[in-house]
């Protein structure tokens, strides 16, 4: 048995690792020759402003009174520079957005090995090709360009990571910090001859990363007053920086300016997918080498905010986000980044036809060099005829499966052959149908709604579901407390009062106690299951932002009905060795007599299939996996608001596992009450999970948003590791259901 387990484990590890070798190898290639334009560039230096998280419509749309939020940049658009829309690509996140802007290529799928936090493969960038680059902004963005640069010419100035607090009253202070630091930098440069000399060299870049809008958008939503006011602050700050730069360099007309954004965001304050509000960002360029504003009465815009801003007569030039990198390179005369896929937007250049032709030629050769190297690599490693499209997963099919399962007691004849009551049959059908609603709900794309309403209902009493009144009171009190904490926390954040300390203490206490409280209750089947449910539902509620909070109660209701129906079905066929055994008297702590464990039967395969289906439903039914792969910190606001990816990720992962634990505890109950062999169970689950793994292997995708890529990987990993994970989790659920902490007179604690 040990040999079988070890061999099976090794095979599954090989299968798991194979997707990263097949799907997630870096598309970046190396060994290309830099391409230079043999003509003097129009600008000596470039100032790049990136307003993180700024939507195009929020930037261009005027106030309700018709005035503009960005008077300085509006004046640039009308008189001095070119403007348009920069079309970003998924995933619409800060790191890949800045890589596209500054390096000219889109998301490298091999970044999955680094948790999407950095690129594991070295890449070229405009900063790397520059003579010197000075940058100010977030510690999450600046270091990755300095880390990959050759030499020591990229300088970073960033604030502490703790400043990125989603509960802050006004995150625009992050942008104010950047502007103040830049002003202090130029003031200091006047007194430092070495720095002054470097600043007057050509091919220099100044990068201002402005994170306030993104943080305010997450915390207060992009239609809030905080977000809109932050846009005005950015415009005023840019105006001041431009004035300082021009004065510092003596108005030499050798400075080019570009203002844009890495991505937008949805109206509910998240991003990572591909909605227009996430992929459309503003672009404004002016200064040395940039075409001045042009009139074009022939164009008409479909965007309402464009018409409202009265830009109909101004020529608008839209670009792809990666096109900005070759534009910046051409303006200051450095080679286009070697890995760039951007195409130089000629309409933004104000130069001779020869300069434009030479620039386009260098751009074309640079892209061709990549193609040649990539083609050579593909010829050595690819068998193209083996790769065919596969239809890439529909959560709604889980709803179809639940609708089919709803008819199981009737179709199988259990209502006639056994003691399965009409109430139990109706409870099964209603629970299945209610649970079938969750896969139909969107996993992302909804505004968090934490308004909870308490409903009371009268249920028919049944001897199988009799619960002590005190337990019900504790259940209602705990859920009510968590509901209060949830609503009061989000209300406090909306009032910009931060996360209340009392709420944070209650939330963490509830989470920690959820592992202990079940061990203090009776080990009787329904008493222990209720205690586990109470603890898990309370924690899940604190981690919820909407209707998914109802998922564990509905799932638990279905699980309770399943336990009763399975017991009745087994007794009706005369297979239960203890026919007089009632579920109300079943005790998890009772040792199982191995000699009385029955042999595997055909009906047990059906039980195992139900178990695997409910496990899949627990993982994918509410879209919790997708919520991890799409960044929305609102679900952990009851626990913390300061950005901490490890703690936030752990909390979200526990939210994913809670429905899983409920199903595992339920099957533990069925295993105990029906004398089902655990070894036989895992052999059946192994076969089913491997068949599903083969299906999900072909569904893995290496393009699209993090939501799409991460979800496809999660599906495959979960199914591949299901057997091993179930074996580990079964030990946890066995302790959770059968062990009890007894507190004696001397308060000594031990396992029963």
TrEMBL record:
This is GPI ethanolamine phosphate transferase 1. Its EC number is 2.-.-.-. It comes from the Eukaryota. The chain crosses the membrane at residues 392-414, 426-445, 465-486, 498-520, 532-563, 608-626, 646-669, 681-701, 713-737. One of its GO terms (cellular component) is endoplasmic reticulum membrane. It is found in: Endoplasmic reticulum membrane. GO terms for molecular function: mannose-ethanolamine phosphotransferase activity. Belongs to the PIGG/PIGN/PIGO family. PIGN subfamily. Signal peptide: none annotated. The keyword Glycoprotein applies. It comes from Denticeps clupeoides (denticle herring).
């Amino acid at each position: 048995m040990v040999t079988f387990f070890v061999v099976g484990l090794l095979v599954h590890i090989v299968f798991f690792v194979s997707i990263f070798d097949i799907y997630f190898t870096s598309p970046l290639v190396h060994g290309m020759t830099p391409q230079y334009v043999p003509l003097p560039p129009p600008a000596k230096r470039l100032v790049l402003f990136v307003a993180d998280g700024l939507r195009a419509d929020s930037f261009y749309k005027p106030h309700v009174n018709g005035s503009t939020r960005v008077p300085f940049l509006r004046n640039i658009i009308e008189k001095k520079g070119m403007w348009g829309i920069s079309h970003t690509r998924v995933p619409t996140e800060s790191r890949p957005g800045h890589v596209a802007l500054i390096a000219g290529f889109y998301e490298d799928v091999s970044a999955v090995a680094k948790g999407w936090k950095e690129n594991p493969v070295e890449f070229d960038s405009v900063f790397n090709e520059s003579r010197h680059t000075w940058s100010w902004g977030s510690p999450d963005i600046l270091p990755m360009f300095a880390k990959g640069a050759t030499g020591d010419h990229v300088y970073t100035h960033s604030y502490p990571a703790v400043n990125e607090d989603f509960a802050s009253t006004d995150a625009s202070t992050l942008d104010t910090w950047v502007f103040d630091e830049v002003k202090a930098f130029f003031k200091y440069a006047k007194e430092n001859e070495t720095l002054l000399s470097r600043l007057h060299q050509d091919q220099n870049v100044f990068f201002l990363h402005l994170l306030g809008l993104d943080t305010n958008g997450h915390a207060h939503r992009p239609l809030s007053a905080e977000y809109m006011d932050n846009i005005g602050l950015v415009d005023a700050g840019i105006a001041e920086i431009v004035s300082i730069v021009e004065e510092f360099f003596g108005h030499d007309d050798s400075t080019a300016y570009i203002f844009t954004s890495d991505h937008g965001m949805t109206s509910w304050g998240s991003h990572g997918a591909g909605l227009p509000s996430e992929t459309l960002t503003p672009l404004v360029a002016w200064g040395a080498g940039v075409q001045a504003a042009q009139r074009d009465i022939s164009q008409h815009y479909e965007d309402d905010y464009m018409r409202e801003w009265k830009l109909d007569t101004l020529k608008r030039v839209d670009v792809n986000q990666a096109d900005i990198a070759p534009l910046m390179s051409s303006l200051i005369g450095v080679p286009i980044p070697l890995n760039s896929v951007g195409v130089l937007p000629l309409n933004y250049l104000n130069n001779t036809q020869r300069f434009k032709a030479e620039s386009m030629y260098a751009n074309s050769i640079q892209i061709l060099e990549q193609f040649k190297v990539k083609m050579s690599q593909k010829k050595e490693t690819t068998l193209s005829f083996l790769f065919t499209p596969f239809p890439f997963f529909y959560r709604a099919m889980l709803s179809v499966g639940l609708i089919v399962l709803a008819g199981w007691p009737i179709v199988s004849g259990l209502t006639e052959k056994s003691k399965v009551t009409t109430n139990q049959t109706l409870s099964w059908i209603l629970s299945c149908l209610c649970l079938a609603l969750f896969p139909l709900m969107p996993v992302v794309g909804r505004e968090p709604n934490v308004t909870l309403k308490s409903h009371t209902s009268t249920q028919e009493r049944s001897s199988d579901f009799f619960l002590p009144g005190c337990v019900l009171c504790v259940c209602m009190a705990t859920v009510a407390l968590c509901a209060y904490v949830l609503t009061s926390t989000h209300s406090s954040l909306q009032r910009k009062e931060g996360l209340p300390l009392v709420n944070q203490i209650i939330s963490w206490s509830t989470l920690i106690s959820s592992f202990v409280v079940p061990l203090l209750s009776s080990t009787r089947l329904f008493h222990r299951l209720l205690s586990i449910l109470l603890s898990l539902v309370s924690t899940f509620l604190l981690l919820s932002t909407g209707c998914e909070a109802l998922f564990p109660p509905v799932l638990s209701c279905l699980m309770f009905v399943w336990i009763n129906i399975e017991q009745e079905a087994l007794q009706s066929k005369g297979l239960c060795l203890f026919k007089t055994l009632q579920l109300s008297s079943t005790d998890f702590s009772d040792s199982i007599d191995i000699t009385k464990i029955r042999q595997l039967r055909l009906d047990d395969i059906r039980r195992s299939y139900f178990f695997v289906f409910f496990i899949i439903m627990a993982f994918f039914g509410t879209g919790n996996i997708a919520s991890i792969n799409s960044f929305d910190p609102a679900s952990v606001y009851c626990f913390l608001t300061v950005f901490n990816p490890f703690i936030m990720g752990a909390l979200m992962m526990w939210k994913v596992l809670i429905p899983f634990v409920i199903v595992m505890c339920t099957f533990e109950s069925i295993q105990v009450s029906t004398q089902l062999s655990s070894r036989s169970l895992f052999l059946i689950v192994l076969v089913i999970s491997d068949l599903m793994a083969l299906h999900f292997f072909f569904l893995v995708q290496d393009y699209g948003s993090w939501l799409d890529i991460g979800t496809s990987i999660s599906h495959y990993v979960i199914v591949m590791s299901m057997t091993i994970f179930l074996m580990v989790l079964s030990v946890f659920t066995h302790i959770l259901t059968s062990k009890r902490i007894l507190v004696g007179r001397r308060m000594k604690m031990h396992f029963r």
